[in-house]
Every structure is written in structure tokens, then in C-alpha cells.
Amino acid sequence: MYKRVRLKDTVEVPPKELGDVSPGLVKRLLQDKLEGRMDEEVGSVVSVTEVHDIGKGAVLPNRPGVYYEAEFDAVTFDPQMQEVVDGTVVEVVEFGAFVGIGPVDGLLHVSQISDEYLAFDGENQRLSSNESDRALGVDDAVRARIVTKSIDERNPRDSKIGLTAKQPGLGKHGWLKEDRDAQEATTGE
Fold first, then answer.
1. φ, ψ for residue 119 (rounded to 5)?
2. Which of 77, 49, 73 shows the shortest CA–CA distance to 156?
3. 1/73 Cα distance (integer angstroms)
4. Could you tell me which residues are beta bridge partners of residue 47?
5. What's the pLDDT tens digit per position in 76-120?
6. Nearest 5°: CA angle at 86, between 178 and 174?
């Protein structure tokens, strides 16, 4: 999910900054340009951590700045298909729950939460079962598996990640603990 990667990119140094083209300046410019951006190959750039090399500057016609190619380390978030993730419910809607996993939210569709029918309670922002006392609401911790992924590089917030919590070992953390405690009580372990 999170990776430290070495990348190369070009950064424009504005004319007023040309007197001090330092790793610190290039790092700040790269952070402004890349952090929060989504790329299909590396995922979302969370942080530019260190600049290793700054190439020779190039001037482009009709452009005021000087362009430098830089090699740098970055921390990225790249969710993988079938990866098991822990997150927190950030919003509950009639068709499911949005779960914050890193810098993006994944959708845990109501059909992928439980085998029980879950009714939407808009007033309390939760999905609850009539068969058991189980409910899923905002701020609940959840373990789920990524089953679909569609990354939107232009608008990272519009990226779509689909989750499931129906397999054993997945679901709301409180439910998982209840299930473990019940199994230990029956097996006597």
C-alpha cells in the first residue's frame, strides 16, 4: 500500500528563485507540484522526502522559469487489488459505507458488508441489522479487501475503490472480536 520510491520529474524554478537552486528549494517545488496527485503507475504521492540529484537547467521559449529534472525519493500510496486494508468509516449512505484508507476513500457496498439485511438509519448515520444487534457507523474501524480499483489521475478524489468485508477475518473490528470471543468460548481455548 505505502511504498518508498525513487522518481524523476521536471520542476520549474521561477526567476526570483534562480539565485538559490538548492535541494531544499527543489523539494518544496516538487511537494507543491506532486503531493496529493495520483499517477496510475506509482499511485498517490503522499510526500516528497529527499532530493538526490538536480540536473542542468533548461530554458524554454516564452517561459519565464528555468526547468530542472530532479531525481528524488517519495512516499506513495498505491492500493493493490485483493489487498487487505484497515480503515475507518467516514460516511454512511443508503447504499453502503465510505471507508478512509490512506489518502482515498473506498466504498463498502451494503451487499458486501454482511450476509444479513442492513437497513439505513440516516438520522444516526449507520447501517444496522434487524436480525442481530450489529450496526456499522461513522468512525467504526473496518478491515476489508480491495476488489475493484479505478484511478482518476486528473481528479484523485474521483478515484473509485471497491471493498468487500464478507470473507472470514474481514468486517468491523468489533464484530471480529465478538466472533473470536464466541469461538474461544465454544472451543475452550
1. -90, 145
2. 77
3. 16
4. 75
5. 988 889 999 999 999 999 999 999 988 888 999 999 998 889 999
6. 15
- Interatomic CA distance for residues 106 and 144, integer angstroms: 10
> pLDDT value at position 93?
95
Over the stretch 148-167, which tens digit does the pLDDT of each residue have?
988 776 666 677 899 999 99
Q: What is the mean pLDDT of residues 8-16?
A: 92
Residue with cell 468489533: 174
Single pTM value for the model: 0.74
Return all residues near 53 (Cβ < 8 A) that are at least 6 apart.
70, 71
**Assigned C-alpha cell, 19:** 539565485
Using DSSP, state whether 147 is helix, strand or coil. Answer: strand
Give the C-alpha separation, 83 to 113, whole Å.
17
> Which stretches of 21-153 are assigned E, i.e. beta strand?
38-39, 43-54, 58-59, 66-77, 84-93, 96-101, 104-109, 118-121, 126-129, 135-137, 141-150
